[in-house]
Amino acid sequence: MSEYNVKKLRRTHKGRIVAGVCSGIGEYVGIDANMVRIALAIATLFGGLGVGVYAIGWLLMPDEEHDTSIVQDLISKQQAKSEHTDWSGEQKPQA
């Protein structure tokens, strides 16, 4: 399979209402985004699971304009910050 035919799960701008999670899932799966929204609303009414699923999708799904998700960005910023700090918490001199 060619790299050009691979579908990627992303938060989309087209059809976005809040963060684009439902529209991204709908586009990836090939169904209407409103069906995903209805499923999440029902899951929210019966136990509140829909809100958690939406929040996790928002954090883990990259935006269509970016290659990394919010969580990946936070982790890479933390790693870059820790590269310049030793175990004592003091700043290392940069070369």
Helical fraction equals 40-55%
List how many beta strands DSSP finds. 0
End-to-end Cα distance, whole Å, is 44 Å
Structural class: mainly alpha
- Biggest sheet: strands, sense, closure? none
Write up this protein.
The longest helix is centred in the C-terminal third of the chain and has 14 residues. The protein has 95 residues and is mainly α.
What's the topology here?
Blueprint: H1 21-29, H2 33-45, H3 49-60, H4 70-83
Helix pairs in contact: 1-2, 2-3
What would a concise description of this structure say?
The chain is mainly alpha-helical and 95 residues long. It is built from 4 helices and no strands.
Descriptive tags:
4 helices; mainly alpha; flat; 95 residues
